[in-house]
Every structure is written in C-alpha cells, then in structure tokens.
Amino acid sequence: MAELIEVERAVNCGGGISLGQHIVLAAEILAGRRIGIRIEPTTLMFYDLGTRPAGPPPRPSIESETTTSSSRTVGSAVGSGVVRGHMSCWG
For the chain, what are the domain ranges? Predict the structure, then answer.
C-alpha cells in the first residue's frame, strides 16, 4: 500500500514552505496562511485548512483545550501591519 503523509505549514512571505531540509514554492497568494500539505507517491498537494481533499477525515482531539493569556500594552501600534490570523509580510 502506498504511503500517505499529511502535514501543516505556515506559508512564508514569498509563498514558500519548508519540508524537511527543502524549501518548496506553494503559491505567493497563500503568503501568511496556514495550509495543509498532502504527500502521496506521485502527488504533492496544497490545500487551505478550511477545505480538505478526498480521503479519511482527520480525527478530532479528545483533549480539552485551555488557553490563558495576559498582555500589557505600552506605547502604540499604529500602522504596524498586524492582522490577527495572518503573518504580516509587508510591515
């Protein structure tokens, strides 16, 4: 049976991702997004994590998630170019 591997990576500002010791160009339009990568014997597929290719669905985690955060703001961040959920490639 052929081996199938799926991983997730963040796309850098130039549209590339790191797979092992290699930088692979995914697409510049995906810069700053987190994508899924499906590796099959003859196919390398990139997909938005909001959609999935055909195949077995991912199994949900059975562990509950707890997030704690605290912050202290000093000064101002006007024009910082930061958008929540995306990397800023131009700021």
Answer: 5-48
